Request: fold
Amino acid sequence: MTILTLNRKELEKRIGKITAELEKRITDMGTPIEEVTSSEVSVEVFPNRPDLLSMGNFARAVNQFNGKGKVASFKINKPEKNYDVIIDKSVKAVRPRTVCAIIKRMKFNEEKIREIVDMQEKLHNSLGRKRRKLAIGIYPLDKIALPIRFVGRKPEEIKFQPLESAKEMTGRQILRGHPTGREYAHLLEEADVFPIFIDAEDEILSMPPIINSKKTGRIDDSTKDIFVECSGHNLAYLKKCLNIIVANLSEMGGKVYAMNIRDGKDGNFISPDMSAEELNFDIKDIEKTLGIELKEKDVKSYLARMGINAKSIGGRGVGVSGGRKMVAEIPAYRTDILHWIDLSEEIAIAYGYDNFVPEIPSISTIAYENPVDKMKRTIGNILAGLGLLETSSFHLTTKKNIKKMHYDFNDFIEVEESKTERDVLRMDMLTNLLQIASENSDASYPQKTFEMGRVFSRCENTEGRRVGGRRVGGDGRGNTHYLLPTAECRGERGVGCSETGVLEEERLAICLIDESVNFTELKQVLDYLFKMLDVEYSIEAVENSNYIIGRCGKIIVDGRNVGFIGEIAPRVLKNWKIKMPAVALEIEMGFL
Reply:
């Protein structure tokens, strides 16, 4: 959740006088009012709506919700001469993608510049995950010679005067000696080359994701035309972020010009693309989800209030129960509409949660707590009592993340048409814990975490079972890499196995990271946990390439292998850029 603070006078120019009734309407829209003063209005913006993190986009959404504004449309002018950004292959190893735009006829003053900087930083911290996923640069066009190149250079070859600095600095000096450089140094310090934007006269514009040049990277109240770029790894993320910025700058009166992005083997394209995405849905599905009856004109009206255009396409639907089929045109700046169920939420918001009539179901049941949830709560309380912090991560991950630990694993369960870079189901819990540790390397140590959740495997993986698990490869030094045995391998029926061909299992993983942590410390945690659960167990030595040889064992309960425990191998820690020793265990929870 982010607090968006807006100038009250400017906001009232756009949406009308702030009254108690309008405050309620803003809250009903899904952006609760935090505080209203004589000069400012503060609202809460939840992570699913980064498009609302600016004055222009927020005011447009409020007007649409109140029926005063039309569904937004944007005119993108064709690229003019030299409106090109050339991505060099040298940058591919560090920050390979970028999207860009040119905005003309801007009228800046101190308030508007502050608004743009605030939007930029809020997008950095939310959608950009503190610049790890993407970074945003905004530059005065009159100080740039087009075309622009996006290249990678060795840190010692990069030299320019960054913002808030009195002298020129090299790339490495910026990471060590500049306040912003030190704050984001972890994003580049392991890279052999640093990314930079340079213009046709070899003038450096910026070194993303760290800082802009003082000469070409600062806008002021005399700036009329600007160049905007978003750089990072995931092209879909970058396009959405740029669309949010372009939408806001359009609301400020800017005239948008596209640019040619020349990306070599990865393909050329024109940026930005503000065309709407089409999403088919069935009114019957929405009605079944919300428990209300809807006419086509109602659906169109409700979605229009949420800034979404909808059209009838006729025919019978193929949804939950079949019926009237429509298509929604999702605005280019919306990042949160991925499925028709998201449209159900949009309609519910526009319909008004206060207008839903509660009904007592005509059934009689005796409620009791799910045994699995009861067990997980008990385990969580025990581990929390030992000072461990519980984490919660996604079921979806990436092949790259899995291979950082299970380097020879290829039996991925892929998600079709994934909307994000996470496109495979996780096959263990420990990979997620190591990712969390890697992303929090700047946090204090010791780091003691645990997580309980589901992992996924194919039901047919029953061959090659050794040491109670599935063999998935070796490390080239005679060491074998094993996974935990699945319930299906033991002849048990997995959750959802018969319907989907995918076996789901509950697992527990624990990871301790500190400069002096060792096998004994983690075994003490396991001893206490199993003592409190009244479980007897033993540990048998085993070689596993994910762990240090001689410091790894399989956990045996009632003669059955239920997991592994050991000190993580340096190879795995290096892949995750974890610079402290780590010990970990992972057990399947079905035997409990």
